[in-house]
Amino acid sequence: MSDRAVAEVVDITPGMGSEVANLDLRDLSSFSQHWLADLLARRKVLVFRDQSLSRDQHKAFARVLGELHIHPSNRQVGAKGDPEVFAIRTTENSRYANGDAWHTDVSCEEVPPLASALYVRELPGPSGGDTVFADMTRAFATLSEPIKALIRSLNAVHDGRKDLARYGIELKAGQSYPCATHPIVPVHPDTNEEILFVNPSFTDHILGVSRSESDAILELLWRHVTDDPRLHCRVRWQPGTLTIWDNRSTWHHAVWDYFPSSRYSERVTILETRRPRR
Ligand code: SIN
Question: Pick from 28, 60, 74, 159: CA 20 to 30 A from residue 228's CA?
Answer without folding.
Answer: 159
